[in-house]
Each structure stands twice: as C-alpha cells, then as structure tokens.
Design brief:
Radius of gyration: 21 Å
CATH class: Mainly Alpha
Number of strands: 0
Strand content: under 5%
CATH superfamily: Cytochrome c/b562
Oligomer: single chain
CATH architecture: Up-down Bundle
Number of helices: 5
Length: 156
C-alpha cells in the first residue's frame, strides 16, 4: 500500500511539474509573440519616421504600404499574447510589461483604441504626400508612447 501511495504521489508531483513547465513555455511563447508585434510596429514606424525626418526619400507607395502594415498590426486580435501573469513581476528577464496592464485593463484597451484610430488616419493619407505623413505620424507614436509610459518598465 505504501508503494502505491508513493507512486501516486510521485506521479502527481511529476504531472504538476510537467504542467507548470508547459504553462511557462506557453507564456514565454506569448511574450515572444508580443515582442515580435512590437518589432513590426518599430520597423514600419522607423521607415516612416526616416521619411518624415528627411533621412529617407518620401515614396508614396512605400509610405502607404508601411502605414497599412501598422494598421494591420494594430487591428490584429492579440489577446493571446497577453496572458495574465506574464508581466515583469514573474518574467523580469524576458519582458518589461508591468502587472498594471492586467489590473487596469480598461485603460490599456482605451490606449490601444487610440493607437488603432491614429493608424487608421495615417493609413488613409500616407500615400498623399510627405506632409500627410508628418502630420499624422506623431499621433501613432503617441499611441505607442501612451502604453509604454504607463505599462512598460524602463530598461534596467
């Protein structure tokens, strides 16, 4: 009887450890996915920003494509990339996302809506000239900054 009890206890412990490792792997995958999404934002914003600053020639077709990419990224349903408990309190070596993201969710949603609205405006006009890009690019950057200021820890 003691052997059966020990075997069942060991199996339960191993099962719990395996489940925990699988949960960590899924959470780390979600963190990587959202970091990849931020890279997509950064890449497209960087190219548009270079045009706006005169560091790259304005190209209407490219500007329109970059702005549409930003809009597509902003409109993507990314809820699975933000599982509860995937903040820097639990994964400090992997993310700068602060736990406030999950405790003030309506605020995060509002900021994301502002980013999406700014990306929509930019996508509608980016191919219409450099002035249109310059006029609308700041609002997209401000949308990014809105979340980063409140919900991303500074680099250490």
């Amino acid at each position: 009887m003691k052997t059966v009890l020990k075997t069942l206890t060991c199996a339960a412990i191993l099962g719990t450890l395996a489940w925990s490792a699988q949960a960590d792997k899924a959470t780390e995958g979600a963190i990587k996915a959202r970091q990849s999404l931020m890279q997509i934002y950064s890449f497209n914003l960087g190219k548009l920003g270079a045009m706006a600053k005169g560091e790259a020639d304005y190209d209407a077709d490219l500007a329109a494509a970059l702005a549409k990419n930003l809009l597509a990224a902003a409109q993507m349903d990314n809820r699975l990339m933000w599982p509860q408990g995937s903040g820097n309190d639990a994964y400090a070596d992997k993310t700068r996302a602060m736990p406030a993201i999950w405790t003030t969710y309506p605020k995060v949603s509002e900021k994301h809506a502002a980013l999406t609205a700014a990306a929509e405006k930019l996508a509608a006009v980016a191919g219409n000239g450099l002035d249109a890009v310059k006029t609308n690019l700041g609002a997209v950057g401000g949308g990014c900054k809105g979340c980063h200021d409140d919900f991303r820890a500074p680099k250490s």
